[in-house]
């Protein structure tokens, strides 16, 4: 254990502050962050298999959290396991979180702050995402990959050795574009995430993919579809006094009915469109 590092971390209350101190100690981390080494530097003394139904990850530590053991469900794919370990490490290092923890799949997707429990899960997720996909590096990679493309999510997932879902979240959060990503299985939405400025989606976990969506029709496995212009009403909830923007949709089929959809709103094109509409409205005589 690195005692100096541990002492510096003890003063940090938020995931962001913890990460800042951690990265100060490891200035030249590779993209595939050596998670186990960092964990053992900060007091994790072992990794074990979690054998409790309904849970994916766990933490067990002494009440002072000077030492801990991280547990993960048997058979978890490597990329998801890494994200789970990062999450549990977050619980271990964030002082206000308890020293015994069991986390479900839902906990590992939590991003809301509606109650204390969810807020802690969301903090552990922010820690894991921030540790495994360091912001400055990730932003640079998004930028150098160029325009928005579903295939970039897979590339980044391989590069950082983190699950597609976790990468997609980070991508949507850090990309400068107005975009959203939807994971589905046999046309039912498993999970969706949108950038802050994206209008409210009309799909949620468990709902059917819209009948008119490209994703429903796209069948070829492997390569992503072309981008297709869609009427915003296909994907968005209607809002009073707000007209639907045009949405660009791209779909990728993974194996066995799993699909990923990327939605994107070209803000520049929308601004132009709105200006044209305003001009037209101004020059159209109104009869009463
Ligand atoms: Zn948790």
TrEMBL record:
Domain IrrE N-terminal-like: residue ranges: 62-170
Pfam family, one: Peptidase_M78
PANTHER family assigned: ANTITOXIN HIGA1, BLL7220 PROTEIN
Protein name per its UniProtKB record: Zn-dependent peptidase ImmA (M78 family)
Organism of this sequence: Sphingosinicella microcystinivorans
